[in-house]
Amino acid sequence: MKKIFAIARKDAIIRFASPSELLFFIILPIVFTFLLAGGTPSGNEDNRIRLLVVDEAQTSVSKEIVEELEKSTAVRPEVLTRAEAQSQFDERRASAVFILPAGIDIAALQSGSAEVELHQQPNNLNATIAERAVLTAIRRVSSSISAAQNAVHQREVKQSFSSDAERQMYFETSLETAQSIQTDAPERVKVVEGTTPDQVEYDPRANSSAGQLITWVFIPLFGISALFAYERQQGTLRRLLTTPSQKATFLLGTISGQVVMALIQMLLLVGFAILVMKLNWGREPLALFIILLASALAAAAFGTTMGTFIKTEGQASGLSIMFGMVFALMGGCWYPLELFPASIQNAVKVLPTTWAMQGMLDLVLRGGGLTDVLPEAGVLLGFAVIFFSIGVMRFHFE
Amino acid sequence: MKKLFLIGIKDLKLMFRDRAALTFMLLAPFLLTIGMGFVTGRFSGRTSGISDIPVIIVNLDKQELGNALEDLFNSEDLADLVEPTASSDPEAARHQIDLDEASAAIIIPEGFTHSIIPADGTMFSADSARPEPVQIEVYTNPSRPTGAGILKAIVDEFVSRVEEGRTSGMTSISQLMASGLLDPQNADDEVRDLFQNVDQSESTAITLKKNTEGPQAVEFDLLAYFAPGMALMFLMYTVSYGGRSILAERSQGTLPRLMISPTHTAQVLGGKVLGIFFMGVAQVGILILASTVFFQVKWGDALGIIVLILAAVFGATGWGMLITAFARTPAQVGSTGSAVMLIFGIMGGSFISLENFPPFMQTISKITPNAWGLDGFTTLALGGTLKNLAEPISALLIMGAVLFGVAVVVFSRNGIMKK
Predict the structure, then answer these.
(1) Interface of B with A in 184-213 (CB under 8 A)
(2) Chain A residues touching residue B162 (CB < 8 angstroms)
(3) What Rg value do the Cα atoms of chain B yield, rounded?
(4) Is the pLDDT of residue A199 over 70?
(5) Can you tell me the distance from the alpha carbon of B172 to that of B71, in angstroms, rounded to the nearest whole number?
(6) CATH of B53-200, one of 3.40.50, 3.40.1710, 1.10.10, 1.10.3470
């Protein structure tokens, strides 16, 4: 037992010999968790098509048009200067630019001289959608004036006005009538939301917390392979042969030390998630401990197996980062697994990260308990048994 | 100059002999790009583009306006945008939405037209003055908010056009009647004319001038963002790997040996920088080429791509030199390089588009070659050319030059290049 503790302590000293290890141990995981929690799509973000709006008029009419656009369910207006909008349009980063030139006011509307511009990328569906939204907005703002103008025209068809003053008077009363009709107009469209279940179970904070925890804990555990390679390269493994230490003692000391460090790292990250991100990790402490331990053991076992195939420390550190990142991405730790095609979702069940992520989401996202995480914990322990067996069988001091 | 190239080529050869490094520099970003291809639906044809939005139309009105709305959804104008199917059963349509078979159902109830245009003989009846409102129901699919929002916008636009026509007609009638120019007893036909084509009214108060001139739209290939995103992230590892070789050569004694040869210090340092640059260009170039061959990624202007790769690698090389200048051991360069790779990866938009980050993060991201490089790759993928890349290329070149200058100062202070 003392030997196991001594080996574990030695590995901890080697690992934290450089203060930069703290960067990977706690600082970067927290930064990534925090950024990805806010940066990944939550499903509640504004999905409307971006419409660049240039308001050079700055009148009540132009502002009313922009307000109408903001109410649109299809476009999201973004007010910019003409130069900024033109630049984005030229670079094709915007499908349409809506320009309200100077002089768009009540007088211009009344005289019929008000003209607005819509620049559209050709053959672009987003631009077509933007055009419809713009038409709706300008129609809503100008319809009462259009109606009054039409009333004046109808009157002139029947009988011409005796003077401009009479014409203006007729226009103004028509405008009042039109506005009154508009105000009294009933709502003619109702929206009813269906009950389609959301296919993607996702909460950016919970997914980011669990996903980054797995990513940043699995990579150093895969790095157990680098510890073996380091000792082998330094010749210290051979020296161990001359001491009364068994292969099992060395392996147990190395692996248990790394697993304990991983558990400490996990608990720090879970603590951060509970305190700062207000996530409910601690509701079922036993279930949480079981899934964390099972995950750590599975990752450590994989690292042990890797260590028996890899010759140099350089190879080991590169490959452990590569496997860690690829397993994390494919296991649904960075993006919800539901986004992957069904065949891939089935294929990635061979990865420990998939099961670790599902187990942790059972707790922190779905509000599950001990019985819910047992299947995932069982699979992870199965991984651990298989990979430890391979690792122990293949392990040689030389 | 020859010595400079020889040192650079020697470092490049050494990199290609290091299988572990090669695996990490080439295989890791390639595998991650494949993963991103799955996530974004690039390989399954499920892209985020908006087209063929499935919609179920239930026209129970069967009158002028109901038919006009149904025709609108089946019009040539919307042929690419929506994919309508007709149904006569509102409940069945709602059920289909609940089963996620379409984005929304548009249910036009019976009497919709007559709630706006009074039926013959009822034009001036008491009921027609304030007809009972009949509402079109848009039954939306909450798991397809974008498509449902667009469908709702199409219905809104139609209804607002109808409403404008109705307001216009009603205003004219009211005013004519108030002026005594219209007799309600004999005006049925005349008034009906005012309601003709009520759904096709066009606003006259504001004219919309459309301009669709310009190049044809380009379909954005998501892998043209994520493949260079991953390549640029791992480029940071490569440049620090290259920088590490300077310190490794010093500790192995080959650097001092090189310094006592008839080679100027600047040539040695320049050769090492060139070696890092070659490694970066080889890495990004291979990844871009592999993405083109295996995934048929549409990159855009080829000349723009080449110049952008060179500029991005130059900017990243500056960072590699700076990391090396401040480090004492090759291991320090390795760990710092890996940390910078990951930090720049997330800050520069390799995992998530920068648009999702708050403005201050977008500003900070400008210190990374990743952000500028991705900006350039996006511009090219959207159909831009070399002339549109002035800003990212200038930024990357300035970044590389400034960082290299700082690194040289630190190198000379630390005496790394002393004989």
Answers:
(1) 194, 201, 203-213
(2) 188
(3) 33
(4) no
(5) 28
(6) 3.40.1710
C-beta atoms surrounding A337 within 10 Å = 22
Choose one of A183, A213, A242: the last residue of a domain.
A183
Contact B193, B257 (CB under 8 A): no
Among A179, A111, A165, A164, residue whose Cα is nearest residue B174: A179
Residue A149's closest CA among A118, A178, A119?
A: A178
pTM, two decimals, is 0.72
> In 3-state terms, what secondary structure has residue B59?
strand
Question: Which residues are within 8 A (CB) of B208 and not within 5 positions of it... i.e. 6 or more apart?
Answer: A115, A116, A117, A118, A131, A134, A135, A138
Residues of chain A with Cβ-Cβ distance to B139 below 8 Å are 192, 194
Q: Do B205 and A199 touch (CB under 8 A)?
A: no
Q: What is the pLDDT of residue B88?
A: 92
Q: What is the ipTM of this complex?
A: 0.71
> Using a CB-CB distance cutoff of 8 angstroms, which residues of chain A are in contact with residue B336?
20
Residue A42 has pLDDT above 60, yes or no: no
Whether residue B175 and residue A121 make contact (CB cut-off 8 A), yes or no, is no
Query: What pLDDT digit, counting tens, does each position of B389-410 carry?
Result: 899 999 999 999 999 889 888 8
Cross-chain CB nearest to A39 (options B20, B164, B357) = B357
- Segments forming the whole domain that contains residue A279: 2-41+204-394
Number of folded domains that form chain A:
2
* Residue among B24, B50, B143 minimizing CB distance to A198: B143
Q: What is the CATH number of the domain that holds A127?
A: 3.40.190
Helix (H, G, I), strand (E, B) or coil at A280: coil
Amino acid sitting at position A147: A
Q: Provide the shortest C-alpha distance from residue B261 to chain A (in Å).
A: 30
Residue of chain B whose alpha carbon sits nearest to that of A178: B171
pLDDT in tens, B268-314: 778 888 888 998 999 999 999 999 898 888 888 899 999 999 999 99
User: In this predicted model, what pLDDT tens digit does every residue of A15-29 receive, in sequence order?
Assistant: 777 777 788 888 889
Distances (CA, A) of A227 to A20, A183, B23, B182, B247: 17, 76, 19, 97, 23
Looking at residue B48, what is its pLDDT? 47
